[in-house]
Amino acid sequence: xxxxPPNLRPDLAPRAKITSASRPGQPTIGMVSLGCxxxxxxxxxxxxxxxxEGYAISPxxxxxxxxxxxxxxxxxxxxxxxxxxxxxALNENGRVIVTGCLGAEPDYIREHHPKILAVTGPxxxxxxxxxxxxxxxxxxxxxxxxxxxxxxxxxxRHYSYLKISEGCNHKCKFCIIPDMRGRLQSRPAHxxxxxxxxLVENGxxxxxxxxxxxxxxxxxxxHAEDRGHRAHITDLARDLGSLGAWVRLHYVYPxxxxxxxxxxxxxxxxxPYLDIPFQHAHPDVLKRMARPAAASKTLDEIAAWRDxxxxxxxRSTFIVGYPGETEEEFQTLLDWMDEAQLDRVGCxxxxxxxxxxxxxxxxxxxxxxxxxxxxxxxxxxxxxSEAKLEAKVGQRMDVIIDEIDDEAATCRTKSDxxxxxxxxxxxxxxxxxxxxxxxxxxxxxxxxxxxxxRVV
Length: 456
Known about the structure:
Blueprint (H helix, E strand, L loop, with lengths): L27 E6 L3 H16 L3 E3 L7 E6 L4 H17 L3 E5 L5 H7 L5 E2 L5 H11 L23 E5 L1 E2 L10 H5 L3 E2 L2 H13 L4 E5 L14 E2 L2 E2 L2 H9 L4 E4 L12 H5 L6 E3 L7 H7 L5 H14 L4 E8 L6 H14 L3 E6 L17 H24 L5 E9 L4 E5 L10 E3 L11 E9 L4 E5 L1
Parallel strand pairs: 1-2, 1-3, 3-4, 4-5, 6-9, 9-12, 13-14, 14-15, 18-20
Antiparallel strand pairs: 7-8, 10-11, 16-17, 16-19, 17-18, 19-20
C-alpha cells in the first residue's frame, strides 16, 4: 500500500502490465510503452495484431527476439527518457524497433542510436508490423493463433482506455502534438461503440475516454451519424453511459457545448468527472500560449457545471514559468485557483521542446523561479485538495478496487482516475474483496490526496 503524491508528469499513462505466456518455439516480441494513455492504446493495438499473427508478448528484454519501444516526444525531458529507453533496449536485447511520437523524428533517433532496426511514427501500425515481420518472421499455429481473441490490454482487466480520435486542430505555441500526430481524425461513433461493447463484455468496469481534444470529437467528420450512433461527444457520452460501465472523460477542451454533458453526469450516465487542461488563468499568458484568453468566463462555466451537478470533480493541468510569465501573472493564477477550487490538479514547469513556437518567445523564466512557482502552486493545490477530502469524511460512496495486497485494498472513487489522482484504502476486513469489484464504503479518514474507509 502506498499513498499517492502529486505526479510530476500528470500526462503519463499507468505502467504497462504485460503477462508472459508462450508455446515452445514461438517468436516473442518485447514491448516498452512510454508516454501518455493515447500511446498506451497504440501499444495495445500493435500487440493485439502481433498476437493474432502468432507472436508471444514478453515483458522482458532478454526473453524477446526483438523489442518495440513506443516513444514519447511531448517534452525535451520526455525525448531524453525515450532515448534512454531505446539505449537500454539495445544494450539488453540488441534488436530494437522504434515507434511513437518521437518516431516522427527518425534522423534525431538514428543520430543517437544508429543500430536500431527501424523507426516509424505515431499510430503507424502497419509499418510497425512490417518492421517486426522483417526482424522476426511470424510462425502462427493455426489451431491457436487464428481463433478469435480479445485484444491485448496493458491495463488491469477491469478498466481500459478508449481512444476516440487522433490528432488536434489547435495551435498552442508550447505543443508539437499536431506536428507529430496530425490534425483531428475522429473515429466513427459506431466503431467506438463496438469496441466499448466488446470491452464491457470482457469484464471492463470502467471506460476512460481519451483523445487529444475529446470535446472536438466528430467536428472533422461533421458529426456524421451511422448505424444509429452520432459522432458528437455529447451523443457518444450518452451512448457509452448506456453500457453500464463507469465512463470517465479525459482531455476535454472547455467549449460551450461541454455544458450539455453535465446533465448526463447529474443523471449518473457518465461519471461526474471532467479532465480539462486549463493551462493558466492570466489572459496575457493564455494569449502568448495561443489559447482562449477567457479565464473569468471559465469561472462562470465552472459555477454553471456545479449548479447542474454539485458532485462534479474537476481535474486540470497547468504550466508555470511560461516565457514572459511575470510574478503578477503567476499571482493571478494562484488567485484564480482560490476561486475555482479545483479538485484534482497537476502542474508542469515549462520546458522548451524542439519545434515549438514558444521557444522563440522573449523573456524565458529562470529555472529557479520556475521551481519556486511550481512549489507555491502545488502548495496551494495541496491545501485545496486536503480541505475537499476532509469534507468527504463520513460520506458513503462507491469505489472500484484496483489492487489488493497484505496491507489493504487500493481503490478509487468516482473522483479518481488511475495513477494520476488519489486512492481510497480499505485496510480492515478487505480479505474477501476482489480486484475489479465496485463496493460501497464509508469514508473514515482523509489525507492530502488519499482517503481511508470501510466497506458498508
